[in-house]
Structures are given as C-alpha cells and as structure tokens.
Predict the structure.
Amino acid sequence: MQAHEIDYHIYGEEMQYVEIELDPQEIVIAEAGSFMMMDNGITMETIFGDGSQQQSGLFDKLLSAGKRVLTGESLFMTAYINQNNTKSKACFASPYPGKIIPIDLSQFNGKFICQKDAFLCAAKGVSVGIEFSRKLGRGLFGGEGFIMQKIEGDGMAFVHSGGTLAKRELAPDEILKVDTGCIVGFTKDVDYDIEFIGGIKNSLFGGEGLFYATLRGPGTVYVQSLPFSRLADRIIASAPKAGGSGREEGSLLGGLGRMLDGDNRF
C-alpha cells in the first residue's frame, strides 16, 4: 500500500511534539496516548494493527494486530482522518523528554528497525511490524529480547528517543559499541549483535551490565543518551520507601545527609 504524503513540523527542544498537516482525506496513524491536539473536522477511528492490511481478510488483520502484542503494544492504533475540504493539522507528543526523529522510509530502502516502544506515528500505509532476531545471544541478552519493531513502506514515520540524540553514519565494516538500552534504531543494512563485556571486575563491579550491542556498518544508527528504563530506575531508586519520608530516613545523619549532598529541595 502506497503511503499518504504528509507534511510535518517538529516543535520544541526537550519536550517535543510533531504537527502533521493533512490534505483532505489524508490519514495519519498513531500509538494510543500520543495524541495532543487537532483541528476541527479531523475524525478519529480505532483500527486493528497499523491499518496497512485494511483491504485484506480477517486473518491478516488479526495477524497484524497479533504482531503488535508481541512487541508489548496495544492491539489497536488510532487513525486520524481529515474530513475537511481544506488542509488540517493534528499534533502528537513525545511521552517523555527527548527528541522526535522523522524517518523518510523512501530514503532508507523502505525499512527501519527500532526498539519496540520508539514508534510514535506515521502516514497511513506505513506498516509497523516485528523484527525477529535470528541469533540466540541477541535474543537472550539484547535487552529487547528476540523482537524489535520494524517500520516498512515508502512514507514518513516518526520515532522518539530519550535525552539527547546521536546520529552515526557507519562505513562498511565500521563497528560501534552501544549500551543495549541506548539504541533507538538503525537502517536494515546494519548488522546487530550482542557482545560480552568480559573481565571479572567489569562484570561484577562495572555497573554497566554484562553485555553491550555491536553495530556493524554500513548504515545509519540513532542512539539515545537517556533510555526511559534508565530514567525510571533512577526515579524508583530515589523514591521514598514505605514508612519513610525520604531516602535519609533511618540513617544516622537523618536530614543532615540530604543537606550534605546538596539535595535539600524537598
């Protein structure tokens, strides 16, 4: 299915949103929870999967939706249809601080592979599926399991990252080593594998996990500085425990400990 041609503009720096301009009867699909605002006359329709199998039978629709379940996403997506006779706009926001990345699939040979929660929205006709890993090590230790998302088609798609975004263009056989959680996505020609860090001290006391990802070019790689899982772990670790009012509760220094480390905002 040929994707709809949509125009867009990305606003903001650290908390971004993307504004999609739709011609009459053009459609954009988006993940649940990403909607921000839209012009009057744009209607919302809940669809199975990504809608790229709309003309197919029931089995194909169920298969498309089932793929989304495997990546931890909802069975349904939302389609936003411009029912006006003029151009109208719909906006979609990132779920946490970071950057929105526009992906023109026609420039990436029709396919882009990303972590399973990176997809934000796309033009109708873009397919959002799953990418199975064929290597056991990658599946067991890659952080994303055997499954990552693949975005296919010839239109525009938008993915989001956490923190600051780094883009690397890898030459043939050039290798980039990345924390497994910091990968946002890469083009289909990039070879992705998992490597053991090695060394007893590194493994036990390094604090960076036992494995990192190796990305071999040629291709384009996007890396994020703050994966949401890392941010969530820090928040949970700093949250007050049950029965206490803060992390210094029960310590010998009490509130003095918080003053000494500069964290006296609360």
Remarks:
- The chain has a mean pLDDT of 79.
- The CA atoms of residues 139 and 146 lie 4 Å apart.
